């Protein structure tokens, strides 16, 4: 047995060495990330997670070694000792190595070791039959029965157990609450042909076409959704903000938990949105939101781990490698939906489920797709079609469990997505290259980035409730969602929110916008992974829970560099620090951008600037928002602070 375990270990080391020495050429960024997260080696949760992962890797090596041991022994026995033990050993490992590489190539086309010639279905079937017959022959030749039983136990029992999905129907009459988020959804791409489910939901619900996110990044947007406040108020201004800055008791999950709800949070990629149980969620479904995930997820390129991590038994040790949208080479939206369906049980209590699906996020790829040679925009369009199917399937599963009989359902997007096309920015004569940036959170004048989906409906005993008087043509924001839910459910919450209940908005309001950290782009217009990591990794550290957070000493510096804007009625005023604090005004109806100095309505432009400076008054001085610094009330505020 020891020789088989040794060969299994050496095979793993061989693949690891070849993979690791090629990391730079693949631009994975693992080496630079490792250097930047220097406090990882003194962080207990990080070291524990890494240790558990490598225990899983060791068990994977042992499992394959045991398979080889049983097969080679049984092969010798079946041949009635006419074949030498050495030949049986060599043949077994040759065929087992081919099987491992063939299976990983078949399931995961884009792994480092995958090759189309190995992904031969006929070859795989023959190999699997060979190993299955020789494994099961243990029960007929009375040899290695205990080890074979152990192998079968690891391989099959957890898989069979997970098939039995709980199909109980919920009995409570209290309304469930669902917020279904879709990442990076450009509003111009929603239509009957491309997103039939989303379009049908919009057609049957209250749809607010002029809705904006305050920060076009997932974490700040979701914190605004859950708190009902602007980022300026809730202090979540950037991705990976330290939770110590946020009052988590002033959030929707806390209010609903006190009202008797069971809270779930679901997300298939949590790398930059580490919302977890601290937000008063009873259960979180999705991959780990930890510093270790950034590094351990890279090991998916090792064929053995890519395969064993598919098994339920090993998923406990290596949850980073499967059902993780960040590891797109193995991500399968259908499988993730099955995980949700198994994990989400109806209760006697009502449930609050906040879910977020990230397929449309860069790099717009997923496992087993042939669109990878297309340009980013066309890959993005396919990812939108896939997420439409995924959300439709998710809703079907909720309905089959009886969870939508009495339910308040929001379908939203956290932000949009820009591809630096002419239609992604307002019409203007100058600065097109420095304003029209790709991605999201990079340029606040881009409606493609900041306009979001907001559509909702309310069922009572399977009957759709009507809300009269909602003014759908007004402007709304992500911070309006929590006040709306509290209003509809008539919860006893005394807090005053920055947002308002959608049912009570009767006139236009000021809506603040902020930019976020900007990624680096290469000459092809795509994200430069290594450059972005090198540029931004110094911002981050690992907290005592093993989470990546922005360093406190650098947080305010990052906030100071933000673009700031405000929307009122059909106008948006924006200040760009990187353009020497240039001020722009956008006519949102005609989609035209003006420089402040060229804007024809002198009174209106002063009023808009006054609105922005009043809203950001407390940080005008520290952030050096120069266009506001000469206003009299800003000067008086500065004197008071001194």
Explain this structure:
- With 642 residues, the chain is α/β, with parallel strands linked by helices.
- It is built from 25 helices and 18 strands.
- Strands 1, 2, 4, 5, 6, 7, 9 and 10 form an 8-stranded mixed β-sheet that branches.
- A hairpin with a 2-residue loop joins strand 15 and strand 16.
- The protein is elongated and about 100 Å long.
- The N and C termini lie far apart (76 Å).
Please give a handful of descriptors for the protein shown.
642 residues, 12% strand, disordered C terminus, 8-stranded mixed β-sheet, alpha/beta
The radius of gyration is 27 Å
Oligomeric state, counting identical vs distinct chains: single chain
Average per-residue pLDDT, rounded, comes to 89
Helix content: 40-55%
Unreliable segments of 5+ consecutive residues: 25-34, 637-642
What share of residues are in beta strands?
Answer: 5-15%
What class, by secondary structure content? alpha/beta
Head-to-tail CA distance between termini: 76 Å
- Number of helical stretches of at least 4 residues: 25
Number of strands: 18
Largest beta sheet, briefly? 8 strands, mixed
Can I get a quick summary?
By secondary structure, the chain is an alpha/beta fold. The protein is 42% helix and 12% strand. The longest helix is centred in the N-terminal third of the chain and has 35 residues, at 44-78.
Question: What secondary-structure arrangement, pairings included, does this model have?
Answer:
Blueprint: H1 2-20, H2 23-26, H3 30-36, H4 44-78, H5 85-107, H6 121-136, H7 138-141, H8 145-163, E1 176-182, H9 196-203, E2 206-207, E3 211-212, H10 218-227, H11 231-234, H12 252-258, E4 262-267, E5 283-285, H13 291-296, H14 303-308, H15 312-315, H16 333-343, E6 351-357, H17 376-400, E7 407-413, H18 432-435, H19 447-450, E8 451-452, E9 454-460, E10 463-464, E11 476-477, H20 481-489, E12 511-514, H21 529-536, E13 540-542, E14 548-550, H22 552-560, E15 564-568, E16 571-576, E17 582-587, E18 592-595, H23 602-615, H24 626-629, H25 632-641
Parallel strand pairs: 1-6, 1-7, 3-11, 4-5, 4-6
Antiparallel strand pairs: 2-9, 3-8, 7-9, 9-10, 12-15, 13-14, 15-16, 16-17, 17-18
Helix pairs in contact: 1-4, 4-5, 5-6, 16-17
